[in-house]
Design a protein that fits this description.
With 227 residues, the chain is α+β, with helices and mostly antiparallel strands. The protein has 3 domains: 55 residues, Structural Genomics Hypothetical 15.5 Kd Protein In mrcA-pckA Intergenic Region, Chain A (Roll); 75 residues, Pseudouridine synthase I, catalytic domain, N-terminal subdomain (Alpha-Beta Plaits, 2-Layer Sandwich); 75 residues, 2-Layer Sandwich (Alpha-Beta Plaits), CATH 3.30.70.1560. 20% of the residues lie in helices and 32% in strands. The strands form 5 sheets. Strands 7, 10, 11, 12, 15, 16, 17, 18 and 19 form a 9-stranded mixed beta sheet that branches. The protein has a 4-stranded antiparallel beta sheet with strand order 3-2-5-6. The protein has a two-stranded antiparallel ribbon with strand order 1-4. Helix 1 packs across helix 2 and helix 1 packs across helix 4.
Length: 227
């Protein structure tokens, strides 16, 4: 049965569907030896030969889901500067897995690695409304005006950013829940209300909680544990 090329690439764990579309448009994808830059292209996974930058793409038959507790100082990327450690250094035989929701180098907590491209798309696209939960420490307590601004939304380059819920759990510590996932979003939102983040830890993605996974440790999970 034929399916759209970007969906096939996502299901094969190459990238999220949005990233797969970018690969197609850039001319990095070929079907049966011919480069295609059309998003409407369909393929038969059983018959067609698909490559990305010359490398064959096989349909995934077994999906893997790994929950990792990323420490600070570790990079969520397959390409890093010399001397940087990445999440792939922490998990053996994981280079074929995509990251479902990155954390910046200075942040820590739950990172999901998987070859299930459809799940990556569902967890990272805002329209699916999947929650991410964070514990955040700031330099000074957030006053009522700052809390209201974060709930209403603050203006960032990508648009209006807001938290779904925010709860004080200590004098300078807060639990934040949001479904957006822009780059360094929480740090930029806190900066917009004239404060700064001291530490940031993600403790939940969808239904999946960090639990008792130690720093730099990981465990296998099921898809049903996540969504």
């Amino acid at each position: 049965m034929k399916e759209r090329l970007q969906k096939f690439l996502a299901r094969a764990g190459i990238a999220s569907r949005r990233k797969a579309e970018e690969l197609i448009i850039s001319g990095a994808v070929a079907v049966n030896g011919r480069v295609t830059a059309k998003l409407g292209t369909t393929v038969d996974p059983e018959r067609d030969h698909v490559t990305v930058r010359g490398r064959p793409v096989s349909r995934v038959t077994t999906y893997r889901y790994l929950a990792l507790n990323k420490p600070t100082g570790v990079v969520c990327s397959k390409i890093a500067r010399p001397g940087d450690r990445t999440v792939y250094h922490l998990v053996p035989n994981s280079r074929d897995l995509a990251i479902a929701g990155r954390l910046d180098k200075d942040s820590e907590g739950l990172v999901l690695l998987t070859n299930d491209g459809e799940l990556v798309n569902r967890l990272t696209h805002p329209r699916y409304q999947h929650e991410k939960e964070y514990l955040v420490e700031v330099i000074k307590p957030l006053d009522a005006n700052a809390l209201n601004a974060l709930r209403r939304g603050v203006r960032l380059a990508e648009g209006r950013a807001s938290v779904d819920r925010i709860e004080e759990v200590g004098p300078r510590n807060y639990r934040l829940v949001l479904h957006q996932g822009w780059k360094r979003q929480i740090r930029r939102m806190v900066a917009a209300v004239r404060n700064d983040v001291v530490s940031l830890q993600r403790v939940r993605i969808g239904k999946l909680a960090l639990g008792n996974i130690g720093p730099a440790e990981w465990r296998n999970v099921r898809r049903a544990d996540i969504v």
